[in-house]
Amino acid sequence: MVEPDQPSTARMIDFWLGGTHHYPVDVAAAHAFEQAYGPCAPVFRALRAFLGRAVRAIAATGVDSFLVFGAGVPTLGNVHEVAPEATVLYTDVDPVTIRLGQRLLAGSDRAGYGYGDATDIGTIDPALLHRFVPGWGRRPVGVVFLGLAAFLDDETLARTLDELYRASAVGSHLAIDFDTEELAGHPEALAMMGPAFRMRSPAAFAPLLGRWTPTSEGIVAVSRWRPDGAPEEVPAAFHGVVAVRSAG
Ligand SMILES: C[S@@+](CC[C@H](N)C(=O)[O-])C[C@H]1O[C@@H](n2cnc3c(N)ncnc32)[C@H](O)[C@@H]1O
């Protein structure tokens, strides 16, 4: 694979999680960000642990297929590893990440990786959708939308979540997180994220869920969503929620 000359947030997360699927350009960007913010590994470990708890909770409702948006690198406790009985379609818009994901999942008959713009589900290859998310629109599925909301403005995010609501069957679940205003306390780190980066308070995020109904845990710091034991003490950089598609 040709070495990329631009860092990717997905590969920076792989670096912070102790993975092996990143390049020097990603490590340099990760170190620069940490200079401005402080240690990131504990925050991203807490985020990946939230993914695990949320996906297992969704699978426990009987859901056996997942559609993942902005998927990044499909390793290190990602969806198909925590729900091994399920089928999983990972999607992303970054061609380098998609190629990497396809290489990593080449031997799997339960998990695949393809192009998908979260803001337009029509961009997903129907054959892949049919194969890995069988009965999409007719059977309940898990929709995983992590590490993505910060890159979408309010109007786009609300429209996207509403489209997913309309397209998915009753009983489907959405796992979603967002960046809180905690990052505003680190102005140099915030500047590195660029002007289009969006932080939100829980009160500002809640209406964007539209008709998706949060489970009883509500919208909380990710380490506090159904923690296994005492929640990890990490900065509340991300909040998350699992929400259900009810009838109507
Ligand atoms: C911060 S990374 C998160 C990766 C992974 N979900 C995780 O939590 O570790 C964001 C990912 O979203 C992808 N992305 C950005 N805009 C997107 C869009 N409109 N649709 C789908 N993916 C997008 C990026 O290419 C990147 O891989």
Automatic annotation (TrEMBL):
It comes from the Bacteria. SUPFAM superfamilies: S-adenosyl-L-methionine-dependent methyltransferases. Pfam families: Methyltransf_19. InterPro entries: SAM-dependent_MTases_sf (IPR029063), SAM_dep_MeTrfase_SAV2177_type (IPR006764). This is S-adenosyl methyltransferase. It comes from Micromonospora gifhornensis.
